[in-house]
């Protein structure tokens, strides 16, 4: 019995180690390739360590290498200034996330704490939006943003997703309904206004789910590709995901600049990995907690 | 949603506290002026809902009955787009390719995720391991697609090198018709699996351990307990996971765009890809809108069917 059990446990551990290996290996392979020379890579594709160690790929994607240097190391000669796109991504992801979480909190408070005619109707109306997938609204939204003359602006990129999120409102309202109202009522009796209660008491008490939604929202926005692809064609506002895809396409098909691509990939993934280092436990718990999105 | 509700319910104070605030005193002094404030507070969300959700939905439906190339005003053509759709071989092939992708990616993802979650649950509560498993969820599909195009490269990709070293023949993962969709499905599973595992893991943690102790006393093996206890108790969460994964998989785009661009020869031309190329390659927005709406109807039908089949809202606890 116990022997059988330990065989089962060994098999389970083996499986888990296998899953972890497949999960993590590509990240190592990015690093290994990004520190290699393209010509050395072709000669020693199986080497587990960087071959022909060089910082060249990073210099290429950061726009620090000259065209000759770049071509000498198997680059395409076209470099991307990734820092610029990094900044665009930071603006896009943080503004979008900040605004949507803030506006959702306001609405959630109105639905959870205030008494007003039409409240339940409005709430059900908002929830219908959960049923409509992006595919249906993205094309018309593109047309709308174009008509407003907001293509290739941060406003046009951010606005459609910055005001309303049925999921966020639902999530925060549920949480607020679960909070005890004693402190809020005491403050109201002491003569505090509703707004003061919202910002002084309810908001701080809701900080847990607010952080959860912010983290998940930021990850989603940072990785967003389809909407920026529609709303921007000018590199002054394009986020990193687009730049990376363009860089991949501009790399020659016959002999792609894999080292440069992996360096760009690493730079693109790095902020998320940093976020993970800081908030790892929180992210894991957020996902388990939210169970949706 | 089931998860959400049960979580929220778990933390909620006694029901009467909610009920009291909810109904009985609509015009009490404590709520004077609420209506005005409420409308101010929901104003941004309401504007967002009307302008960027409701209006585009209605407009998308309208555009699907028009000939519209963005630059000139839409022209009403009735059902022409839908008639064209019925006779469009590329559309049907794209639908077929998409369904193939959905079936492959969701079934593989589900099997791997359930196994991983169950193994995690029985072996370790380490947050570090769970953290490592969701790493791929944190990076974009563009990054995932780029890395895997490199690892699956026919000549220099490490996967093919390993296959050849083991005595196999090299596989043209992303450049052959037969392998394109399975490869994309595998990349998608790699990216999605950890996230799904963590949700299922969270569901497993809500199952009281005493149930397993009882099972063990009755002499049930681990596998039997998994089949007879774990799976039935998990069903609401599994149903949610399946529904969400299917909806997500039907809209796959990013990975395809980065790895194959729909090729070779339409072998991986999924619906979203075809819609995108119709709209932005050929500026046929009316037709693209008609396809979007069709995809939406398909999604609604499938979701409804799944909810019925999986009896998503009930678990088997009473069975």
TrEMBL record, chain A:
The chain crosses the membrane at residues 12-31, 90-111, 123-145, 157-176, 197-222, 258-279. Keywords: Cell membrane, Membrane, Transmembrane, Transmembrane helix, Transport. SUPFAM superfamilies: MetI-like (SSF161098). It is a multi-pass membrane protein. PROSITE patterns: ABC_TM1. Gene3D superfamilies: MetI-like (1.10.3720.10). It comes from the Bacteria. Its main location: membrane. It is found in: Cell membrane. InterPro entries: MetI-like, MetI-like_sf. Pfam families: BPD_transp_1. This is Sugar ABC transporter permease. The lineage of its organism: Bacteria, Bacillati, Actinomycetota, Actinomycetes, Micromonosporales.
Automatic annotation (TrEMBL), chain B:
Residues 95-306 form the ABC transmembrane type-1 domain. CDD domains: TM_PBP2. This is Sugar ABC transporter permease. Residues 20-30 have a biased composition (Basic residues). The lineage of its organism: Bacteria, Bacillati, Actinomycetota, Actinomycetes, Micromonosporales. Keywords: Cell membrane, Membrane, Transmembrane, Transmembrane helix, Transport. It comes from the Bacteria. It comes from Asanoa iriomotensis. It is a multi-pass membrane protein. Pfam families: BPD_transp_1 (PF00528). It is found in: Cell membrane. Residues 1-31 are annotated as: Disordered. Belongs to the binding-protein-dependent transport system permease family.
């Amino acid at each position: 019995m116990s022997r059988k059990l330990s065989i089962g446990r060994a098999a389970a551990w083996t499986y888990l180690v296998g899953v972890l290996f497949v999960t993590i290996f590509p990240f190592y392979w990015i690093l290994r390739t990004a520190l290699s020379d393209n010509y050395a890579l072709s000669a020693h594709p199986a080497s587990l360590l960087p071959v022909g160690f060089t910082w060249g790929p990073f210099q290429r994607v950061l726009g620090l290498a000259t065209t000759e240097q770049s071509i000498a190391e198997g680059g395409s000669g076209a470099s991307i200034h990734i820092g610029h796109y990094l900044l665009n991504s930071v603006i896009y992801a943080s503004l979008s996330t900040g605004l949507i979480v803030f506006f959702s909190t306001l609405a959630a408070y109105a639905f959870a704490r205030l008494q007003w005619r039409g409240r339940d109707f409005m709430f059900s109306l908002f929830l219908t939006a959960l049923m409509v997938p992006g595919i249906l609204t993205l094309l018309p939204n593109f047309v709308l943003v174009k008509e407003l003359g907001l293509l290739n602006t941060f406003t046009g990129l951010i606005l459609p997703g910055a005001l309303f999120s049925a999921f966020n409102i639902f999530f925060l309202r549920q949480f607020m309904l679960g909070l005890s109202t004693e402190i809020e009522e005491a403050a109201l009796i002491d003569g505090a206004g509703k707004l003061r209660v919202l910002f002084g008491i309810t908001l701080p008490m809701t900080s847990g789910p607010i952080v959860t939604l912010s983290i998940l929202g930021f990850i989603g926005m940072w990785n967003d590709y389809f909407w920026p692809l529609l709303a921007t064609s000018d590199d002054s506002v394009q986020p990193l995901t687009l730049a990376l895809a363009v860089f991949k396409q501009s790399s020659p098909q016959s002999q792609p600049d894999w080292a440069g691509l992996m360096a760009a990939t690493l730079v693109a993934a790095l902020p998320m990995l940093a976020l993970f280092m800081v908030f790892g436990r929180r992210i894991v718990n957020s996902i388990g907690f939210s169970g949706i999105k | 949603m089931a998860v959400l509700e049960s979580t929220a319910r778990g933390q909620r104070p006694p029901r009467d506290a909610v009920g009291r605030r909810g109904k009985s005193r609509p015009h009490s002094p404590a709520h004077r002026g609420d209506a005005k404030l409420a409308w101010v507070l929901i104003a941004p969300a309401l504007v967002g809902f009307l302008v960027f959700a409701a209006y585009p939905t209605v407009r998308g439906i309208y555009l699907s009955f028009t000939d519209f190339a963005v630059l000139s005003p839409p022209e009403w053509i009735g059902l022409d787009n839908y008639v064209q759709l019925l006779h469009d071989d590329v559309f049907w092939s794209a639908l077929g390719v998409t369904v193939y992708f959905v079936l492959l990616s969701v079934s593989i993802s589900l099997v791997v995720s359930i196994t991983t979650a169950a193994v995690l649950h029985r072996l370790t509560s380490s947050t570090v391991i769970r953290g490592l498993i969701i790493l791929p969820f944190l990076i974009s599909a563009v990054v995932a697609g780029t890395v895997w195009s490199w690892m699956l490269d026919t000549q220099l990709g490490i996967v093919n090198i390993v296959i050849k070293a083991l005595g196999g023949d090299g596989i043209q993962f992303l450049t052959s018709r037969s392998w394109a969709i399975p490869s994309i499905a595998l990349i998608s599973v790699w990216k999605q699996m950890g996230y799904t595992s963590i949700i299922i893991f969270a569901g497993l943690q809500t199952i009281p351990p005493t149930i397993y102790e009882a099972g063990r006393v009755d002499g049930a093996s681990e596998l039997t307990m998994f089949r007879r206890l774990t799976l039935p108790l998990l069903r609401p969460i599994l149903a949610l996971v399946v529904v969400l994964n299917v909806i997500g998989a039907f809209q796959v785009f990013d990975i395809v765009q980065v790895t194959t661009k729909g090729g070779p020869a339409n072998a991986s031309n999924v619906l979203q890809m075809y819609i995108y190329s119709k709209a932005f390659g050929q500026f046929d927005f009316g037709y693209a809108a008609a396809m979007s709406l069709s995809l939406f109807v398909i999604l609604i039908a499938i979701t409804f069917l799944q909810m019925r089949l999986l009896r998503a809202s009930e678990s088997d606890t009473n069975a």
